[in-house]
Design goal:
- With 195 residues, the protein is an alpha+beta fold.
- It folds into two domains: 8-70, 434 Repressor (Amino-terminal Domain) (Orthogonal Bundle), CATH 1.10.260; 79-189, Sandwich (Jelly Rolls), CATH 2.60.120.10.
- Helices cover 24% and strands 30% of the residues.
- It contains five helices and ten strands.
- It has helices at residues 8-22, 27-34, 38-45, 53-63, 67-71; strands at residues 89-91, 98-101, 111-118, 123-126, 135-143, 145-150, 153-158, 162-166, 171-175, 181-189.
- The strands form two sheets. It has a six-stranded antiparallel β-sheet with strand order 1-2-3-10-5-8, with no helix packed on it.
- Helix 2 (27-34) crosses helix 4 (53-63).
- The radius of gyration is 16 Å and the shape is globular.
- The two termini are 23 Å apart.
């Protein structure tokens, strides 16, 4: 993955504050709805803390948005072309997982494409995501071995494998191999306003 933009924490803070205000949440209201502490939300908005993937997932679920919409630059003009140099990349400070938003934002498409690099030994568990019921995703493995657990079922995915799953259901990802896993997530919404 490319070097991360050092101002990304600031952009995350600006986007969180913008989405919180648009949703009519106070800091306390978003804390109650998301299960993330008021202090942590405030620190993220002031770019004093880098949120983990789990914290961002909880905040997005409470705000009724996806990570793709969260990372979208609201001030960027809509363009059907997403050049690699302009694609936002975010790294989870807890797991080292990195996420590149591939597809152009703001186009109104119901599909979003994300490229993930998941480091050796990485593991993340997502709780149920209320507000994400209209989202489904395909996990397509490009290299490495990824273990995906959901609905009391565990799948071991390797190069070329593709798994379909709802985003809202609880699930976990673990790097089950000895190299980083590179995979694409193709997210599809069936409800307007989520991407």
């Amino acid at each position: 993955m490319d070097t991360l933009d050092l101002s990304f924490d600031h952009a995350i803070g600006v986007n969180l504050k913008r989405l919180r205000a648009a949703s009519g949440f106070t800091l306390d209201g978003l804390a109650d709805a998301s299960g993330v502490s008021r202090a942590m939300i405030s620190r993220i908005e002031r770019a004093e803390a880098s949120p983990s993937a789990l914290i961002l997932a909880k905040l997005c679920a409470a705000l009724g948005t996806s990570l793709s919409a969260f990372f979208a630059d609201a001030n960027r003009p809509v363009d059907p072309l997403s050049r690699r140099v302009d694609q936002p990349v975010w790294r989870d400070p807890e797991t080292g997982y990195s996420r590149r938003s591939i597809s152009p934002s703001g186009t109104g498409s119901g599909v979003d494409i994300v490229l993930i690099r998941f480091p050796v030994g990485g593991r993340i568990a997502y709780p149920p995501k209320h507000g994400a019921e209209g989202l489904s995703q395909h996990i397509w493995i490009m290299s490495g071995v990824l273990e995906v657990a959901m609905d009391e079922e565990t799948y071991l995915l390797s190069r070329g494998d593709c798994l379909y799953m709802p985003v809202a259901d609880p699930h976990s990802f673990a790097n089950a191999g000895d190299t980083d896993v590179l995979y694409a997530v193709i997210i599809e919404r069936t409800r307007q306003g989520l991407l």
